Amino acid sequence: MNMVWAMTGAASGLVTGAALRGPVYRLSVPTGSPDRSACERCSAPLRRWPGICCRRCGGSLGTPAVLEVTTAVVLALVLGRFADQPDAAAFAFLGAVGVPLAVIDVAVQRLPDRLTLTAIPALTLLLAGAAITSSKTGPLIRSLLCGLVFAATFLLLALIRPGQLGGGDIKLAALLGVALGWLGWPTLLAGAAIGFILGGVGGLALLAMRRTTMQGQIAFGPFLLGGALIAMLASGIPVK
Ligand SMILES: [Zn+2]
After folding, report:
1. Whether the predicted model's global pTM rises above the 0.85 cut
2. How far is the CA of 63 from the centre of ligand 1 (A)?
3. Distance, CA 46 to ligand 1 centroid (Å)?
4. DSSP letters spanning 91-149
């Protein structure tokens, strides 16, 4: 872990998290509903870049500090791990998109297309830049292949068990497949396995706390993102 890069990641994560508060607040609406355009408490219209509080009533837009702290922790871990490598920007970008996706999925059980479908080409471009910088095309081809395979696996799972996984999960799988594939097939497998284990444990915990039922749906995105993060961080450590 490169401490200087980790601290840079933490600082940039705090700023990024605060900047993301407005967009996340807008998008934290159930599927099919229009974006939120006003403060929940006082109905004051949101500004184009609303900041972190409502201008009229001063109420926090979303849960205070969650986005800032989570983004800071994720970017500290990611930049500490990838530091000055050519792929650091791509993984930092994934972290900065992954946190809002997880927060929105927890709030309203949805992974907005506007985030996933924008992030897939953006991440691919950043990885293509890293491939050019390091003069290696192999990882990029593997990335695209893994994105396809991971998304296809989720599509299959969604078809076998309708209602458990949604379209948003399939698009998230494509995004994470591209990222983990860059690091290798074992990293993709590890990320998927950890994601499903975390999802299983998380589901049981929610059942135990009576926050869901056997038939209830839980947001799977945060577990998948968590699994991918752990696999990414562990990817540089040699397996004995
Ligand atoms: Zn307000």
Report:
1. yes
2. 14
3. 9
4. HHHHHHHHHHHHHHHHHHS---HHHHHHHHHHHHHHHHHHHHHTT--HHHHHHHHHHHH
